[in-house]
């Protein structure tokens, strides 16, 4: 590694990189860093330090997530050489059913490239023994190991800066000096605090509590009651911004996003008529939950997430608000790798080449916040919901390109497009006029009944 001249700090043959966390962000960084280094004829060593075994069923091997990936991300990854095998994908989602208190309607995928897929980040919920299915996180990590990264199954417990590198200490007692440390530890707040020793101005991301659980059902019942459809709920329940039931193999995943979700909020949701109706009537849903958790989600980016020889990526730094965190991990992981290999590993290099990428995501999230604020208002108003419901039902009889509101809703709930694009389509005059008309007409008609 080059000297202490921090104005010109670059990776050299034999440089060592520690990637802390082997989730998607850590793997995407490692994959692209190895790829770019090979093209640059640079010989680097990457250690991915990850304590979890993603092939272990249940919480011990899980990175808590809805497991939705968009077709556009799957295609983008395959152009990068990351071709997800069919054993990683649990179900292709071709439509979604939107549930309001006043009824439900099905929205077909607006276009082929807007399809989505469901998968498990680990091998599945507690007790799952399906050996044919693969874990997404493990697949990515193994790809990096195949390409030359070393996997260290351990947890980092300390980080210390020295004049010519950063000492990384693990739980098992190993200490090693690295030229660059990449923080991809997700929202593990204890781990993120360690980075404050390297970057005193670092402020971890703002988070809120969410809820995930798995329902285990016979495949035939899943086919009958859920099919290849994701079920989205826009119900007037406090604290919930978004609820979704996602079929995956012999499981259905429930994801509840909002603010500080707790047991009582979950119970209100599960006991609502709209949710009960989705399940076979003879089944007590509380008895078919093998796994549940309240993971944190990133709702506002970290501050000062890079400095000399250190950068944070993925959830530890910037994600996409409520959706497509895997896509954001890809964007930040690749941008960090590109900067480190081609431009340098000092603060000014990351500021010049990495910051604009994360800034773009942060700006998009501001627009996302506004869109989710609007959906909260819709959730509370039966007048607005009646208009939306009516317009969506009518649109489903029209050709794809005329389904303006349906495609906005699809992208909002699946995370298939940047919020900026969704917003532009949302304020399209034809959509707004149509929506206002449906709100007025739908409510007048209801009053006449
Ligand atoms: C309820 C919910 C639903 C979601 N649904 C979706 C969805 O459907 N689609 C989507 O794209 N995104 C979704 N997300 C977001 C997505 O899960 C995250 O954005 C994504 O996991 C971020 O990847 P990451 O690699 O940054 O972090 P993580 O996936 O959290 O990986 C971090 C890794 O770091 C490791 N680690 C932590 N501390 C240490 C340490 N001290 N030493 C070594 N390793 C350590 C952890 O073990 C972990 O493996 C959802 C999130 C939540 C909370």
Task: Give your account of this protein's structure.
By secondary structure, this protein is of the alpha+beta class. It folds into three domains: about 5-65 and about 135-205 and about 300-365, FAD/NAD(P)-binding domain, CATH 3.50.50.60; about 80-130 and about 210-295, 2-Layer Sandwich (D-Amino Acid Oxidase, Chain A, domain 2), CATH 3.30.9; about 380-449, no CATH class. It contains 14 helices and 21 strands. The chain has a seven-stranded mixed β-sheet, sandwiched between helices. A six-stranded mixed β-sheet has the order 8-2-1-12-21-20, covered by helices on one side. The chain has a three-stranded antiparallel β-sheet with strand order 3-7-4. Helix 1 (about 25-40) links the parallel strand 1 and strand 2. The longest helix is centred in the C-terminal third of the chain and has 26 residues, at about 355-380. The N and C termini lie far apart (about 75 Å). Bound molecules: flavin-adenine dinucleotide (FAD).
């Amino acid at each position: 590694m080059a000297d202490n001249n921090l104005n010109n700090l670059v990776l050299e043959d034999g440089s060592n990189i520690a990637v802390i966390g082997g989730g998607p962000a850590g793997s995407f960084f490692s994959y692209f860093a190895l790829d770019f280094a090979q093209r640059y004829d640079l010989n680097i060593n990457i250690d991915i330090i990850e304590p979890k075994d993603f092939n272990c069923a249940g919480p011990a091997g899980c990175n808590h997530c809805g497991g939705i990936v968009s077709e556009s991300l799957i295609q983008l990854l395959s152009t990068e050489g990351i071709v997800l095998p069919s054993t990683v994908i649990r179900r292709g989602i071709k439509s979604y059913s939107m549930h309001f208190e006043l009824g439900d309607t099905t929205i077909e995928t607006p276009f082929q490239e807007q399809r989505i897929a469901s998968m498990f980040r680990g091998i599945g919920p507690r007790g799952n023994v399906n050996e044919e299915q693969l874990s997404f996180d493990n697949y990515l990590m193994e790809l990096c190991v195949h390409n030359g990264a070393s996997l260290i199954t351990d947890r980092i417990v300390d980080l210390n800066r020295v004049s010519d590198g950063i000492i990384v200490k693990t739980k098992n007692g190993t200490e090693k000096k690295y030229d660059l440390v990449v923080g991809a530890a997700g929202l593990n707040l204890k781990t993120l605090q360690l980075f404050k020793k390297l970057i005193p101005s670092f402020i971890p991301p703002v988070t809120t509590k969410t809820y995930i659980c798995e329902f285990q059902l016979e495949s035939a019942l899943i086919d009958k009651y859920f099919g290849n459809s994701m079920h989205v709920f826009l119900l007037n329940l406090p604290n919930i911004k978004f609820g979704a039931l996602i079929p995956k193999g012999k499981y259905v995943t429930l994801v509840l996003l909002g603010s500080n979700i707790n047991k009582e909020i979950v119970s209100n949701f599960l006991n609502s008529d709209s949710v009960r109706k989705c399940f076979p009537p003879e089944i007590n849903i509380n008895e078919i939950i093998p796994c549940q958790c309240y993971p944190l989600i990133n709702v506002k980016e970290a501050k000062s997430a890079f400095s000399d020889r250190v950068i944070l990526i993925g959830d530890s730094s910037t994600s996409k608000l409520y959706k497509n965190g895997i896509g954001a991990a890809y964007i930040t992981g690749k941008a960090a790798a590109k900067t480190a290999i081609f431009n340098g590993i000092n603060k000014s290099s990351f500021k010049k080449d990495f910051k604009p990428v994360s800034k773009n995501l942060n700006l998009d999230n501001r627009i996302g916040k506004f869109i989710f604020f609007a959906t909260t208002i819709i959730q509370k108003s039966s007048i607005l919901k009646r208009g939306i419901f009516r317009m969506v039902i009518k649109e489903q009889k029209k050709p794809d390109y005329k389904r303006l509101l349906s495609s906005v809703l699809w992208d909002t709930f699946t995370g298939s497009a940047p919020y900026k694009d969704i917003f532009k389509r949302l304020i399209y005059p034809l959509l707004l006029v149509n929506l206002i008309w449906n709100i007025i007409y739908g409510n007048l008609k209801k009053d006449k009944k």
